[in-house]
């Protein structure tokens, strides 16, 4: 990481803990460490994928970056300024440059607003655009995401899931953001629609030079879509590498298990099964040492006691947090 | 661009909003529309009496004081609901009572919406200390028996002056009802706002820099407002009843006939076998209660998108 | 194919929902059969009617809007649609059991998991409470719940999603059903847990010899777990085949499109192939073949636009509903070749 300037977004040791309160006086008795020391950086024009199972903290990372949930510690540097310590005015500007596409195509659009109002609202709020100019911009955005501009006065419930997700994409693009955070944008969609949206996102990236932070639980989708992939487990990144490198040479036992658990259509591509026993431990009281050790087939004494840091391993931008991986 | 200009300048097809959708469904329910007509008649009657008083039209209901016959004439061709102790027409009194009831219920509704909805929305949206204070206030209010509370308010407010305006019987009644019954709607809105607040559309609005007030008024309230309407179609009945009870207890309108006062009068008459005043007031209450209940249920079925069959 | 070896055969089932906006034909003329001890998968996108088909088999279509309007469901030699409600209740949970997608909501939160399974056992078997309780612990052990003696008295909310799904499965197989209907059993679960649950179903099938009707949208799951598969699109079955043949050589353009649009590990591509357009609304189906507006062949073909192809056998064990599938001949053409 010689030249930090080429990074559009740099997240450093981000921690987001939620206090657990109990009793009449609401005393804090502990913390849910949803995100516990996550660091990564995204270059302009690149796509970084954040993959992991439900509850691993990937969505919380996304929301902490734009301060939809307050972070506990760490730094989020976007274009040279720290988002976490920015004042109200600066935060408003940052929110113009970073937008989010949400997972649920039904929940993420206000059902009482027309499509035109939904897509146009960021423009109204941030730039004060109104009237026919607003209509024009909305219509253009609609056509960019593959919807007819005639739909401008319709309501979300008149559209299918895939079309709604396109509306969500148009809204995210309205302010011409530099970074788009895609929070599981296709996991609620059917297979045949999923591929349409993924292609659309790729086309828009080429056209507008967008940078994506792409969050998903489906490793196959992430591998297709992203340049760099980071695998999360219990609030930490356990492995990060270029997507081809990660696929051909996964080092962390969790990544390997995740890959082999994906059901594969073609029997020739089915690798050797590596089943994980047990379930993800409760995030309320995580195990000591490496959080993965209770399920890990390779776990040893050292794994139970000390957690390995995320470190580069072979000079190919491949980072992994596992004691055993360095023996190879 | 020119293509888009052309499309924008041409007339675009309008979408169906959830409101239109709901009302279309409601329109298809015959019973609900009949009930709506009944409710409308009561409202028109109240409005007509107001107009008649304002322009001094000489019509029956506003001349309820006139002695039209002897004391306690039983119902018949001449007097449909008979006469009361002063020989006044019970029918006229009943019709005039509609004005009092509708006025009280409508004003009480408006007062409790104006208090309850914003408080509920603020409590649900901001949570924390604000929420705890508001919840504390309404919990305290609702822990006092309802009738007792209304009575207390009515007694305190009676014959007091507010902003130089003297509170007369009917004003006292709706102020008392309104000031005590916002708790239900406040609780409903708070719960609903808490639910909606975690939806992604609210988070999306925050993510592009919407202000809190914009989120509350532009995003959250339109999504919960149908519940206010539904709630009030059902609560309206209880306001009419509250007026009746207050008048019955002698705390309501003293100088003009209302259904509650009629029932109060009828209490003594019943022992003499004079049942018509009681029957007239009860019938008036019964029909509007029934119509409002059925209409309220239909409204809930058609406006609440959760209940819609996919 | 003879009747032997078949546990369930669904013949020309149609289920409609009569809504305020019109009649939604959720299932149209669906036929398939499930062999003893095999896994049959019903695969399709959301709203294609696969869940309604399952509920139709259980006769759990909610009236008065929903109604099975025609067809036969022959299970163990009896037409389920002819049975009285009381007889049907005896079959449900006993001979045919069902597990649902959402393990959160399909367990009653106010009873311990033990109580719920005991109730299910005692409903269908003459067993004392003690015996049923012992059976329950045994079942929980069988479905891989660690420390079953303790967990049997836990409440559903004390368990994780994967554990709850295991409890659901324990409850479903407690009466040794002949057919287990699994409606998206792993959709709400993470991939690593999904694999565990599917392994468990495989193991139980081997032990009990039951048949499984697996309803899913995940083609990968189907390819790995099912013996036979039917693909549903817009209320109809468009293709039936043995699973290995289907994935080797799909015949219907919809199946082909679906398989091509999957992002796959290890296959890098600049773009994914897609199926254009969206799934039609069941209140306003297109005329002719329902897939024709999205089909590369059908969108410009007169016959596809006007006449709906029925499901026909094209070669041994393979049925398809497409005018252009190889071997798909009309009755007229068949006569001509004879």
Tally of domains of chain A: 1
How many helices of chain C does DSSP assign? 12
Task: Give the overall shape of chain A.
Answer: globular
Fourth-tier CATH superfamily name of chain A: P-loop containing nucleotide triphosphate hydrolases
Total strand segments of chain A? 12
Cα(first) to Cα(last) distance of chain A is 24 Å
List the helices and strands of chain C in order: EEEHEEHEHHHHEHEHEEHHHEEH
Report the C-alpha radius of gyration of chain C, rounded: 21 Å
What name is given to the CATH topology of chain A? Answer: Rossmann fold
Low-confidence region ranges of chain A = none
Strand content of chain A is 15-25%
Count of beta strands of chain C: 12
Q: Main β-sheet of chain C: number of strands, strand sense, barrel status?
A: 8 strands, mixed
What is the CATH domain class of chain A? Alpha Beta
Q: Which structural class do the helices and strands of chain A define?
A: alpha/beta
What structural category arises from helix and sheet content of chain C? alpha/beta
Q: What characteristic shape of chain C results from the CA principal axes?
A: globular
Q: Roughly how much helix do the residues of chain C carry, as a percent range?
A: 25-40%
């Amino acid at each position: 990481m010689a030249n930090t300037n080429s990074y559009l977004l740099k997240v450093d040791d981000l921690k987001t803990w939620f206090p657990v309160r109990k009793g009449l006086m609401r005393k804090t008795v502990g913390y849910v460490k949803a995100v516990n020391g996550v660091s990564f950086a995204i270059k302009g024009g690149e796509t970084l994928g954040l993959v992991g199972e439900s509850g691993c903290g990937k969505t919380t990372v996304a929301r902490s970056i734009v301060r939809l949930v307050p972070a506990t510690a760490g730094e989020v540097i976007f274009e040279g300024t720290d988002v976490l310590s920015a004042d109200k005015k600066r935060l408003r500007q940052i929110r113009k440059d970073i937008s989010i596409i949400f997972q649920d195509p039904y929940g993420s659009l206000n059902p009482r607003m027309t499509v035109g109002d939904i897509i146009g609202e960021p423009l109204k709020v941030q730039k004060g655009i109104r009237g026919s100019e607003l209509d024009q911009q909305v219509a253009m955005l609609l056509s960019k995401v593959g919807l007819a501009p005639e739909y401008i006065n319709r309501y979300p419930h008149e559209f299918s899931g895939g079309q709604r997700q396109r509306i969500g994409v148009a809204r995210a693009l309205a302010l011409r953001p530099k970074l788009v955070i895609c929070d599981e944008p296709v996991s609620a969609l059917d297979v045949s629609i999923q591929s349409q949206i993924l292609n659309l996102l790729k086309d828009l990236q080429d056209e507008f030079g967008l940078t994506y932070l792409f969050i998903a639980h489906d490793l196959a989708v992430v591998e297709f879509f992203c340049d760099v992939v980071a695998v999360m487990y219990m609030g930490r990144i356990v492995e990060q590498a270029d997507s081809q490198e990660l696929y051909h040479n996964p080092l962390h036992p969790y990544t390997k298990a995740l890959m082999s658990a994906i059901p594969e259509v073609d029997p020739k591509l089915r690798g050797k099964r590596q089943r994980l026993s047990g379930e993800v431990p409760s995030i309320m009281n995580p195990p000591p040492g490496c959080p993965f050790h209770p399920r890990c087939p390779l776990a040893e004494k050292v794994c139970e006691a000390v957690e390995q840091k995320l470190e580069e391993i072979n000079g190919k931008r491949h980072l992994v947090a596992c004691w055993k991986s360095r023996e190879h | 661009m020119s293509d888009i200009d052309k499309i924008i300048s041409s007339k675009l097809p309008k979408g169906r909003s959830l409101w239109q959708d709901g009302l279309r469904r409601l329109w298809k329910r015959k019973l609900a529309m009949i009930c709506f007509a009944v409710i409308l008649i009561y409202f028109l009657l109240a409005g007509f009496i107001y107009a008649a008083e304002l322009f001094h039209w000489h019509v029956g209901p506003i001349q309820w004081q006139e002695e039209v016959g002897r004391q306690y004439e039983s119902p018949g061709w001449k007097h449909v609901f008979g006469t009361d102790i002063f020989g006044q027409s019970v029918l006229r009194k009943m019709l005039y009572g509609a004005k009092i009831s509708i006025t009280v219920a409508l004003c009480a509704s408006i007062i409790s919406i104006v208090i309850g909805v914003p408080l509920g929305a603020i409590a649900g949206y901001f949570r924390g200390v604000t929420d705890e204070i508001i919840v504390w206030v309404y919990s305290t209010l609702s822990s006092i028996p309802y009738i007792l509370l209304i009575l207390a308010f009515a007694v305190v407010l009676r014959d007091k002056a507010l902003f130089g305006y003297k509170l007369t019987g009917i004003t006292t009644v709706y102020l008392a009802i309104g000031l005590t019954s916002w708790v239900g709607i406040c609780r409903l809105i708070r719960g609903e706002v808490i639910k909606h607040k975690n939806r992604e559309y609210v988070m999306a609005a925050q993510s592009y820099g919407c202000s809190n007030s914009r989120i509350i008024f532009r995003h959250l309230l339109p999504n919960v407002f149908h519940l206010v309407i539904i709630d009030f179609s059902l609560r309206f009945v209880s306001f009419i009843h509250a007026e009746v009870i207050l008048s019955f207890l002698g705390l309501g309108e003293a100088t003009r006939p209302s259904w509650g006062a009629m029932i109060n009068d009828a209490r003594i008459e019943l022992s003499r076998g004079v049942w018509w005043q009681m029957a007239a007031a009860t019938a008036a209450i019964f029909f509007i209660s029934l119509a409002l209940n059925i209409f309220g249920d239909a409204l809930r079925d058609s406006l609440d998108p959760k209940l819609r069959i996919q | 194919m003879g009747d032997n070896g078949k546990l369930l055969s669904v013949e020309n089932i149609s289920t409609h929902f009569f809504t305020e906006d019109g009649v939604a034909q959720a299932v149209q003329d669906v036929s398939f059969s499930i062999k003893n001890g095999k896994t049959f998968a019903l695969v399709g996108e959301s709203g294609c009617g696969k869940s309604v088909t399952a509920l139709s088999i259980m006769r759990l279509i909610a009236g008065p809007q929903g109604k099975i309007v025609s067809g036969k469901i022959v299970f163990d030699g009896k037409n389920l649609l002819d049975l009285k409600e009381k007889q049907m209740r005896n079959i449900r949970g006993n001979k045919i059991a069902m597990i649902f997608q959402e393990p959160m909501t399909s367990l009653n939160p106010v009873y311990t998991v033990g109580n719920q399974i005991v109730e299910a056992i005692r409903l269908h078997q003459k067993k004392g409470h003690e015996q049923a309780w012992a059976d329950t612990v045994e079942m929980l052990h069988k479905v891989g719940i660690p420390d079953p003696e303790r967990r049997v008295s836990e409440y559903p909310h004390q368990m994780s999603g994967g554990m709850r799904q295991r409890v659901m499965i324990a409850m479903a197989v407690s009466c040794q059903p002949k057919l287990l209907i699994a409606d998206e059993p792993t959709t709400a679960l993470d991939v690593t847990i999904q694999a565990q649950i599917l392994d468990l179903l495989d193991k139980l099938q081997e032990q009990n010899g039951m048949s499984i009707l697996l309803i899913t949208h995940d083609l990968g799951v189907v390819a790995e777990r099912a013996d036979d598969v039917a693909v549903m699109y817009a209320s109809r079955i468009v293709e039936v085949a043995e699973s290995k043949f289907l994935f080797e050589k799909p015949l219907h353009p919809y199946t082909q499109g679906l398989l091509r649009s999957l992002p796959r590990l290890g296959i890098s591509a600049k773009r994914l192939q897609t199926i254009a357009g969206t799934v039609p609304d069941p209140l306003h189906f297109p005329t002719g073949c329902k897939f024709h507006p999205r089909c590369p062949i059908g969108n410009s073909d007169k016959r596809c636009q006007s006449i709906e192809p029925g499901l026909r056998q094209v070669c041994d064990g393979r049925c398809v509903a497409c005018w252009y599938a190889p071997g798909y001949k009309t009755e007229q053409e068949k006569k001509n070749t004879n």
